[in-house]
Amino acid sequence: MTARPEVAAAGRVVVKVGSSSLTTLPGGLDAARLSALVDVLAGVRAQGREVVLVSSGAIAAGLAPLGVVGRPRDLATAQAAASVGQLRLVQTYADAFDRHGVTIGQVLLTADDLTRRSHYRNARQTLERLLTLGALPIVNENDTVATEEIRFGDNDRLAALVAHVARADALLLLSDVDGVYDGDPRQGPARLLDTVRDPADLGAVTLGTARRNGVGTGGMATKVEAALIAAHAGVPVVVTSTGQAAAALAGEAVGTRFAVMGPRPRTRQFWLRFATRPRGRLLLDDGAVRAVRERGASLLAAGITGVAGEFLADDPVELVGPDGVVVARGLVAYDARELPPLLGRRTAELEPEYRREIVHRDEMVLVRRPSLG
């Protein structure tokens, strides 16, 4: 019997690998490291299991061919490096998987593709069809057009979202660190955490950045955030080093395991909580907070004391209590400019053409403390 049977038995796994595991700053893409990972994943496929790979490395792979030294400081250079590097990265993957008779499919996503419901559904359908046709999807952020926070290798949150989109049975987050430690092992004695069952288990843990070779920015904090997102969405997670990928996928006790912390939510609820980017805030009084949090009620105009941000009808917004704590997230029924005349008014005082609910309970998800979204 394996130490982690839920991982060993996972029929569909999402594996995320960072730039620091595939590239070096002077030499760009390291084909030998990449091929070693491909051998592991091809072996998993040979067992009849399905794999979705989330791979960083496009920008790093494009630096050497362009003669760029060091991390690009401007957006245009980073996008240019991604344009060159993405071709080299995927072609190297294609050649390596072809030796195992595995066909790959490239899926490039931006934040918009997961924060808009229609795009989210399309991403799910694409991944599902690729897997049904026997291909192995390779997902990466579309850094050639991304305009916010272009970072080397920081695809951890994307991997957690993809795990839900793809209905994965397990998520494996790989880097050059063995797992989550209760301190920085580079600075002195530190204990590797075997299992995290609740965010409280991390209360005494100081999360620093992962060891880097100059091309990765996804530190351990981003991996823990991603692992908690997936675990709360019903997906078990293992965080470990790339060299231990085979052992982790076999269910051996390597790295740090994040146990499932909640049932798998409905797609709409997960999307609202973790994939949306709030466009603004609605400020609630105490009565509205109780109605939303304790009674599961819709948000009415009478309980709103203020509006912050610029948003349109059907945009995601945060619902915030008087203490500044986010209570919920939901889709608002009005534009920001339409709301001020309605605030504090009882439903009976509103003209018939106004929708009764500012945020309907079916378009809302509560945010637990501490907030992960």
Explain what the structure shows.
This protein is an alpha/beta fold. The chain has 2 domains: 5-269, Carbamate kinase, CATH 3.40.1160; 278-366, Archaeosine Trna-guanine Transglycosylase, Chain: A, domain 4 (Roll). The protein is built from 11 helices and 17 strands. Strands 5-6-4-1-7-9-10-8 form an 8-stranded mixed beta sheet, sandwiched between helices. A 5-stranded mixed beta sheet has the order 13-11-14-15-17.
The biggest sheet, with number of strands, parallel, antiparallel or mixed sense and barrel status, is: 8 strands, mixed
Helix content: 25-40%
- Structure summary, number of beta strands: 17
Q: What is the number of helices? A: 11
Output the keywords.
about 30% helix; about 375 residues; 11 helices; globular; 2 domains; Carbamate kinase; eight-stranded mixed sheet; alpha/beta; Archaeosine Trna-guanine Transglycosylase, Chain: A, domain 4; five-stranded mixed sheet; 17 strands
Summary, kept brief:
The chain is of the alpha/beta class and 373 residues long. The chain has helices at residues 5-8, 31-46, 58-66, 75-98, 111-115, 117-132, 156-165, 220-232, 245-249, 267-275, 286-295, and strands spanning 12-17, 23-24, 28-29, 50-55, 104-109, 136-141, 170-175, 195-196, 237-241, 256-258, 280-284, 299-300, 304-309, 316-320, 326-331, 357-359, 364-366. The longest helix has 24 residues, at 75-98.
